[in-house]
From TrEMBL:
One of its GO terms (molecular function) is hydrolase activity. Residues 21-395 form the Beta-lactamase-related domain. InterPro entries: Beta-lactam-related, Beta-lactam/transpept-like, Diverse_Enzym_Activities. It comes from the Bacteria. It comes from Planosporangium flavigriseum. Gene3D superfamilies: DD-peptidase/beta-lactamase superfamily. Keywords: Hydrolase. This is Serine hydrolase.
Length: 409
C-alpha cells in the first residue's frame, strides 16, 4: 500500500498545490473521461503524495484500491532494458555487437525502399542491427499496431497488432520479424517498434534463462516486486483494473473487453515490450532503484555509472525525437527529448513547453500510464489508469505541469 512517508513541506512541496493534482484528475473521472487512477509522487526517497480516485471497473462501481493491478504495456520496456544492461555489466556482450551473433535470423536484413505492403521493393541493409539499436529504437524494426507505414502494415498482415498471434512464442515472433524489411538503415533514424521484444529474446539467449525466470530471479526477487506478473490468476481477478477506450460518441470511458480480458490468460509469448502487469507499490520500487543509481535496500542491480550512461541521450548526433523520428507515435513528447538505453530523456524542457528537469527520464504505456525519474530534483512520479490510446487526453503533460508547479523550494 502506498502512503505518504514524510511531510511534503519538508520535501520542498506546497501541500495545497499537490492537492491540485487530485482535484484536476478527479474531474477527468467525474466527467466520464477516465475510469479511475492512482498516482505517487516522491522526493529524496520519501513519498510526498499518494492518492487514488474513481473506479477499477467503472460500470460495476468497483473503486480503485491500493493494491490494484494495472497493465503496464510499454512500461515493461524499461524493465527489459535493465535486464539487458545487467548482462552487459557482466561482459556478456558489447553494445556495438551485431545481434545476429545470438539471433542468426537477423543476419542479412533488407530495408524497405518503396512500394506497397503487398509488393514492397527492398534493398540490402548496409548496417547490421546492433544491441544499442534495440535499446534506442533505432533498429529499423516496426510495430504492427501503428499502421503508419507499409512496413507496419506488413507486421499487421502477419498477425501482429497490439498483441501477437496467440500461438507465437517470442522466438517465433523474432523469426517472423526478421523476414520483414526494416523501415530504415539501423542507426539512422528513430521509430517506436518491437525492438524491446527482440531485446527480451536476446536476454533469454545470452542468459540461458526464460525471460520470466530472469525477471523473477534477477529483478523482482531482489526488489521485492512480488505483485508483478505476466497474467492475473482467478484469485486476483478483482484487483485487476478494467481496460477502457473513449466512446466514439460522447468520449466517455467504455470497456475495451476484447483486449482487456487477455490479461486473465497465460500468454504464449512473454513480451519484453509490453507484457507485464503490476501495482503502484511494485513499480515504485523499480523507480526508486533507478533514482538511487541501481540499488534499493542493499540490493544492487546496476552500477550507478551504468544508470547514468543509460539515461543520457544516445540518439545519433545528439538529436531529439522531433528531428530523428520516423514515427508519429511515442510514449513521450518529441521536441527537446532524446532517447537513452531504454528511456526517453529530457535534453531541454523548453522546446516541448512542458516542465521537467534536465536529464529527467521515463516512459509510459498505451493505456495512459506514465512514470518519470528526475535525478536533479531527486523526484519520481507515477500515474496509473487504463485508457487507450495514451494520447486521448493530455494526462501526461498536465501531470508534469501540476507536479513541478507544486515544488517551491
Amino acid at each position: 500500500m502506498m502512503e505518504r512517508t514524510a511531510d511534503p513541506a519538508q520535501l520542498g512541496f506546497d501541500p495545497t498545490r499537490l492537492d491540485r493534482i487530485d482535484r484536476h484528475f478527479a474531474h477527468y473521472v467525474d466527467s466520464g473521461r477516465l475510469p479511475g487512477w492512482q498516482l505517487v509522487v516522491t522526493r529524496r526517497g520519501e513519498v510526498a503524495h499518494a492518492s487514488m480516485y474513481g473506479y477499477l471497473k467503472r460500470e460495476e462501481r468497483v473503486p480503485v484500491r491500493p493494491d490494484a493491478l494495472w497493465r503496464l504495456f510499454a512500461m515493461t520496456k524499461p524493465i527489459t532494458s535493465v535486464a539487458a544492461m545487467m548482462l552487459w555489466e557482466r561482459g556478456l556482450f558489447e553494445l556495438t555487437d551485431e545481434i545476429s551473433r545470438w539471433l542468426p535470423e537477423f543476419a542479412d536484413m533488407r530495408v524497405y525502399n518503396k512500394g506497397s505492403a503487398r509488393r514492397p521493393q527492398t534493398l540490402p541493409a548496409t548496417e547490421p542491427i546492433r544491441v544499442w539499436h534495440l535499446l534506442t529504437h533505432t533498429s529499423g524494426l516496426a510495430y504492427g499496431f501503428l499502421q503508419n507505414t507499409p512496413v507496419d502494415e506488413m507486421y499487421g498482415n502477419e498477425g501482429f497488432d497490439l498483441y501477437p498471434p496467440a500461438t507465437h512464442t517470442l522466438r517465433d515472433a523474432c523469426e517472423v520479424w526478421a523476414r520483414l524489411p526494416l523501415l530504415f538503415e539501423p542507426g539512422t533514424a528513430w521509430a517506436y517498434s518491437v525492438a524491446t521484444d527482440v531485446l527480451g529474446r536476446l536476454v533469454e539467449v545470452v542468459s540461458g534463462e526464460t525471460l520470466d525466470g530472469f525477471f523473477a530471479e534477477r529483478i523482482f526477487g531482489h526488489l521485492g516486486m512480488a505483485d508483478t506478473r505476466w497474467w492475473v490468476e482467478e484469485a486476483d481477478k478483482e484487483r485487476l483494473a478494467g481496460l477502457y477506450a473513449p466512446h466514439p460518441v460522447d468520449g466517455h470511458a467504455a470497456h475495451a473487453d476484447d483486449v482487456g480480458r487477455l490479461a486473465l490468460m497465460k500468454p504464449n509469448m512473454l513480451s519484453g515490450g509490453h507484457g507485464l502487469i503490476s501495482t503502484a507499490t511494485d513499480y515504485h520500487r523499480f523507480t526508486q532503484m533507478l533514482l538511487r543509481g541501481g540499488e534499493l535496500n542493499g540490493e544492487r542491480l546496476l552500477s550507478s555509472r551504468t544508470v547514468d550512461f543509460m539515461t543520457r541521450n544516445h540518439l545519433p548526433g545528439d538529436a531529439d525525437l522531433g528531428r530523428l523520428s520516423r514515427s508519429d507515435f511515442a510514449e513521450t513528447a518529441f521536441e527537446g527529448v532524446g532517447f537513452g538505453l531504454g528511456f526517453a530523456v529530457v535534453d531541454d524542457p523548453v522546446p516541448g513547453r512542458v516542465p521537467a528537469g534536465f536529464g529527467a527520464y521515463g516512459w509510459g504505456g498505451v493505456a495512459s500510464t506514465t512514470f518519470w525519474v528526475d535525478p536533479a530534483e531527486e523526484l519520481t512520479a507515477m500515474f496509473f489508469t487504463q485508457l487507450m490510446p495514451e494520447n486521448a487526453y493530455p494526462v501526461r503533460t498536465q501531470l508534469r505541469q501540476l507536479v513541478y508547479s507544486a515544488l517551491v523550494d
